Structure formats: structure tokens, C-alpha cells
Amino acid sequence: MIDIVDLKLVPWGNTKLQPDNTFKCQHGKAECFLDIVEACAIDAWPDLNEHFPFIYCVESLVYHKNYTQWETCFEKLNLKKKLVTDCVLSGRGKELELQYAAETNALQPPHKYVPWVVVDGQPLYDDYMDFISFICKAYKGTAPVPSCSSSINVVKIGRKFNPFCLKQTAMSKLSTIFKNGMIDFVDLKLVPWGNTKIQPNNTFKCQHGPAECFLDTVEACALDVWPNLNEHFPFIHCVESWIYHKNYTQWETCFEKLNLNKKLVTDCVGSERGKELELRHAAETPPHKFVPWVVVDGQPLYTDYMEFISYICKAYKGTTPIPGCSSSDSLSFTSKLSTISSTITSFVEQRVKLAASA
Fold this sequence. Notes:
Helix content: 40-55%
Number of helices: 16
Pfam families: GILT (PF03227)
Structural class: alpha+beta
Strand order of the largest sheet: 5-12-8-9
Protein name: Gamma-interferon-inducible lysosomal thiol reductase
Subcellular location: Secreted
Keywords: Glycoprotein, Secreted, Signal
Oligomer: single chain
Distance between the termini: 32 Å
Strand content: 5-15%
InterPro entries: Interferon-induced_GILT (IPR004911)
Number of strands: 12
Number of domains: 2
């Protein structure tokens, strides 16, 4: 498909240009530094077949929080390191980033979050993962595009039983606050509603179809029959894990796995109680732009939702140390080119409110 696409990567994101012409990146100095690395790679190797594998390699390491290992991508891809490092150390890197800042700021409509994907000038908003179907629809050529005939069908059918991967990723990370003891300082509230809409006849229209509606009701009933977080969270995590692997019919195995009374939930789902609970969750869901929508002490995290642990640490006003804060709320980033560190804030005793709508 790349043969019919002009792909342009813009390593700027939500970075802000300060009055003194320095950069303030959403995720700190590490992001600023690696954005410059990627800008220099695009400049040094204009050929997409060269710079894309390098950027993909760097981003893969960042995803796994291996911020200092980006230089291994040169050897892995047999690329000349000096071209990029010379650019980073000189004023060229900053010059390139200023160009990307101008391009990003010129977007119409302006971008709201990242990743911000645009096809033929049309932003995809939270449909960015379906960019292949948008490319196929935008293509005006006559030569068949091999992946289009199947990709559009995959999107149309697949969205009905979407794996909700972002939701499951967030749920998996939420489980860490149970393991490290942070949950003792957090009031966690799960809201299984997401982007569902109430229709004029009082039925629900879910973003990903009837399967999502049904399983949201299952989760709402689980919250109701087991108000204890230590009971309903493992069950919902189990259900979401099945969904992530596209095993939509296996959710009932979670009862046996966790030694929970199945009848309590199935009776709720089969009665009007399930719908009543979902209407409550609809009323509780705040105005939001996408899901998962994570809120810490009333403050939405937007695209930073995966960093909720650091926001909890910053919001905590207690004096008792919170397990996990000393490491999660700081970042140490070291390389031959840059050394970056951040400080830890002090804490005061107070539970932090954490709400996740998905």
C-alpha cells in the first residue's frame, strides 16, 4: 500500500514553543530529545524506507521505557550513527523541530491530541487506528490496491467486535496499583459506558456494536453485586483480557477462575437492573473526547492516561510515602548526548480520586 501513499511523519506532537524559543514537551525532556533524534533521522535519510524503520525501532524502545537504548537502532539497521548525532549536537536539530512546530501549528482544524492522523487533509480524530480504510476510500486511482479490498471489510466487520486494545492496555496498567500497594491511597472508580449513546427509544448504541453493549452491562452488574474493589476489579480485568484476545464468548469462565457467584451477575444482566445501572453510568460519564478517559482528582489526563500513576503521585498530599511513587514519578534518562533527570515532589496524607471511563 505504501506505493500509493505519501507518508509524512511529524515528530512534534503536543510540544509547546516557549517565549525564549525553547521546547516544553508533554512527557518531559526525554521526549524533546528523542523528537530531535527522529527529526534528524528524517533529515539525514529522506528515503522513507530508511528513516521509518529507524523511528519505528526508537519508538519500540520508548514503548518499553528503554529510553537510553535508542542508539542500538543504528547497529540493528546498519545505519550511520554520525549523521544523526552530529545533527542532534548542532543547531540543525532544533531548526528541524521549529519547522515541524510550524507545520503542526498550521493544521486546520488544529490538532487536539496525539497521535493526530490526517488523510488527504482530513483528520481522523479517534478513528486514527482505521487509517487504512480511509486511505482506501481516498484513493482515486484505477490500479487495484491489493490490501484495500480486504482492509475495508476488516474495518467494517472488525469494529463491531473491536478488541478494545486501548482499554485493555489501561486496565493492565491499573492492575499494577493493586500489586504495589498504591491502591491503598486511591479511590478507584470504573465507569463502563465509554462512547455509548442513548437513543430516543431509550436503547443504547455502542461505539463497537452489541458485543460492547452487552459486556458493559455485565461489568456494570459486577460493580453492583460486588462493590468491593478487590472483587469486581479482578473480574472486569479478566473479562477485558478475553475481549482483548477476541474471545468474546468466554467471559463466563471468569466466574470459576475467580471463584465468584455467577448467578448474581447473570440475574442482573437478564433483568432491568442491568439497564438501570448503565443509565447511571451514562449520567456519571463526563464530557469526553475519546476512551479510555481517565480523571485524577477531577482533572482529565487526555492522551496522558497511561501516565496516571505519576499524576496520582503528584496529586497526593499525604506524608506517608506511597509505594510506587519514588520510581513512577521520576525519570532518569542518560545517553552519551544528554543527561536528563527530574525531581520528586513531597506528599501529604490524602486519598486520590481516580476515575476511568471506557
